[in-house]
């Protein structure tokens, strides 16, 4: 029997490490630090996306479909192989950046994710295959695999065209887009549909199909929003805008499915999901704005807006939804006090990041000691995660 609580705690531990690296990065702008900023950024982003979110989602997927399926041995091997790749990245990226060892471990992680995708698609019990939840999870896993085209392309681009090539950024944006908008979002929707199915509130096939096809079309077309910084032909603006509109329509369908459903969750979990829904709505609106040439140019010129958007989605929408799902499944206990420390840290850092971008754009006076304030406020995030992890480690089975 696999102790999935331990797996959830490990994923939370990676989140704590990523948050600590994030605070460390903030202090680069406060004082002289004898380390390579870019190398630490690589470690921070890889551990955040692959340690916390990937591991968190894969743990939830296993709990949903496989806990009683007699597949523990295969899953355990994939899990520990994944840990080797994550720890390898954690201990190489901060010191070498993209070099032989770090590239080896990140490449091995891609193979681990392919193995996990194979495991889920091949071993899932027959009774789940036609459910809305599994169709969503299946789509999410294909986006996970599809997004890996970006990392595979990076090696060839760096060897032939170099890091200054537009294709280098394109490969990174390709990866991030299909991770954030495909794998993350569709997997989270799948987990929520699973809970609805367990409560006897499964969406009607017609309603789910509308949502599913609109969202997939929107995810694919909205990738073109990631290429607008090179000021391409107007057709790319039109395709990106259509993708954003289709995602907006998809989530109208999604919230229609949830409307009037008696979700038998605790009041705290309902609050977490309402916050996540609000963050999702803002995310979709920001995507829609970014289809306009003015806002596309603004985002490219002032990178704080892009950083703010990525953190809005990762720290806000995705992580808060994961907190809610871990609380529902009992894999992690998330106390109200600790969550609100986390949320205050998230809200203040987002406000400061967007303030910086706006100040530079509009020529507003800059707050004195801005970077010190940002670094200190950012400390609320690892503080909350450390308390959360400690409480869960000390809680008896």
UniProtKB/TrEMBL annotation:
Record keyword Isomerase present: no
KW Transmembrane (keyword) present: yes
Protein species of origin: Salinimicrobium catena
Source species taxonomy: Bacteria, Pseudomonadati, Bacteroidota, Flavobacteriia, Flavobacteriales
Transmembrane segments: 12-35, 47-66, 78-95, 101-121, 141-161, 173-196, 208-230, 236-259, 271-289, 309-332, 339-364, 370-389
Keywords from the UniProt entry: Membrane, Transmembrane, Transmembrane helix
Name of the protein in question: Cytochrome C and Quinol oxidase polypeptide I
């Amino acid at each position: 029997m696999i102790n999935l609580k331990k797996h959830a705690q490990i994923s939370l531990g990676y989140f704590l490490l990523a948050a600590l690296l994030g605070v460390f990065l903030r202090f680069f702008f406060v004082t002289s630090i004898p380390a390579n900023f870019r190398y630490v950024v690589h470690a921070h982003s890889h551990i955040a996306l692959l340690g916390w979110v990937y591991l968190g989602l894969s743990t939830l997927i296993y709990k949903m479909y496989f806990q009683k399926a007699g597949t523990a041995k295969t899953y355990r091997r994939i899990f520990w192989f994944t840990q080797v790749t994550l720890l390898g990245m954690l201990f190489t990226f901060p010191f070498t950046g993209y070099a032989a060892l770090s590239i080896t471990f990140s490449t091995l992680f891609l193979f681990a994710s392919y193995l996990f995708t194979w495991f889920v698609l091949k071993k899932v019990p027959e009774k789940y295959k036609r459910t809305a939840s599994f169709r969503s999870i299946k789509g999410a896993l294909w986006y996970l695999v599809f997004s890996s085209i970006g990392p595979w392309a990076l090696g060839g681009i760096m060897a032939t065209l170099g890091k200054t090539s537009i294709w280098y950024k394109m490969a990174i944006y390709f990866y991030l887009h299909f991770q954030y908008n495909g794998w993350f979002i569709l997997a989270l929707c799948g987990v929520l549909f699973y809970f609805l199915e367990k409560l006897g509130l499964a969406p009607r096939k017609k309603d789910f199909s509308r949502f599913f096809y609109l969202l997939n079309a929107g995810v694919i077309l909205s990738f073109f929003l990631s290429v607008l910084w090179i000021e391409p032909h107007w057709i790319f603006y039109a395709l990106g805008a259509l993708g954003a509109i289709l995602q907006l329509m998809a989530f109208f369908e999604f919230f229609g499915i949830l409307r009037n459903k008696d979700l038998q969750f605790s009041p705290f979990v309902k609050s977490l999901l309402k916050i996540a829904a609000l963050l999702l709505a803002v995310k979709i609106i920001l995507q829609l704005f970014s289809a306009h040439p003015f806002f596309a140019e603004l985002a490219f010129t002032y990178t704080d807006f892009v950083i703010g958007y990525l953190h809005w989605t990762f720290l806000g929408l995705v992580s808060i939804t994961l907190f809610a799902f871990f609380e529902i499944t009992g894999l992690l206990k998330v106390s109200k006090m600790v969550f609100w420390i986390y949320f205050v840290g998230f809200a203040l850092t987002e406000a400061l990041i967007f303030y910086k971008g706006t100040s530079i754009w509009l020529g507003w006076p800059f707050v004195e000691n801005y970077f010190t304030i940002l670094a200190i406020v950012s400390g609320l995030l690892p503080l909350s995660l450390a308390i959360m992890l400690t409480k869960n480690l000390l809680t008896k089975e």
